[in-house]
Design goal:
Blueprint: H1 13-21, H2 27-40, H3 42-60, H4 63-89, H5 106-126, H6 129-137, H7 141-148, H8 152-165, H9 167-186, H10 192-210
Helix pairs in contact: 1-8, 2-10, 3-4, 3-10, 4-5, 4-10, 5-6, 5-8, 7-8, 9-10
């Protein structure tokens, strides 16, 4: 997929079947597997996380333009964790360059991040609960874009529909991930070098276990 392709519409039959049949969310299992995945590739994950932190720090020194710039690359950078996790889960060799393949999906990821950010913000301003509902509902968007080459709006809506089927369990999962990162931040911030990749891997594992992987090329 080229960075500025919009993505494509995908046949929703597989997702409709998943929603109709239902699924379970195994939070502790995902976090445990995320930790094991991190331990097996600790150098690569910490190295990439340091780059992400450095990019955030540099952009923060650039004022409004820096914030805008980082917001544009944040989604492709986060997607790097997903691509790395997908490759590990399918037994493919992980190269450090794989972490930057999220930029191959730049436009749909950027548009999804922008649109979901706006909608969540509106929901939080209006009644708070709609914003929380959408923030959880869009948790699988990045993975759908990467795994199916899906255009941003279908990815957002497909994620929302899948998550809504078992929304409260996803809320608990998201809360656990948030608390793990809070603990990482409390450890003088250094703990985030561990918690950020572990929670990202856990979310990718949740996607694989619930939705399944469609592609074999990332």
């Amino acid at each position: 997929m080229a960075p500025f392709d919009f993505g494509e519409k995908v046949d929703p039959a597989h997702f409709d079947k998943l929603i109709a049949e239902g699924y379970e969310v195994n939070t502790s299992d995902y976090v445990q597997k995320g930790w094991e995945m991190f331990k097996g590739n600790i150098g690569e994950f910490i190295g990439f996380t340091l780059i992400c932190f450095a990019a955030s720090l540099v952009s923060s020194k650039m004022g409004g333009f820096g914030s805008l710039l980082f917001s544009a690359v944040a989604a492709p950078l986060y997607a790097g964790y997903a691509i790395a996790a997908f490759r590990i889960m399918t037994g493919q060799q992980l190269q450090f360059s794989d972490f930057f393949k999220g930029f191959n999906y730049f436009l749909p990821l950027f548009l999804a991040g922008l649109a979901s950010g706006i909608l969540v913000a509106i929901g939080l301003v209006l009644l708070i609960l709609p914003g929380i509902y959408l923030a959880i509902g869009y948790m699988l968007t990045t993975f759908l874009v990467i795994d199916h080459g899906m255009e941003f709006w279908q990815a957002m809506e497909t994620s929302r529909k899948i998550v809504t089927k078992n929304w409260f369990a996803f809320f608990v999962f998201a809360l656990v991930l948030f608390l793990v990162n809070v603990l990482g931040a409390l450890a003088l911030g250094v703990g985030l070098l561990v918690s950020a990749p572990v929670t990202a891997c856990a979310t990718a594992i949740a996607y694989k276990e619930i939705v399944g992987l469609h592609s074999a090329e990332w």
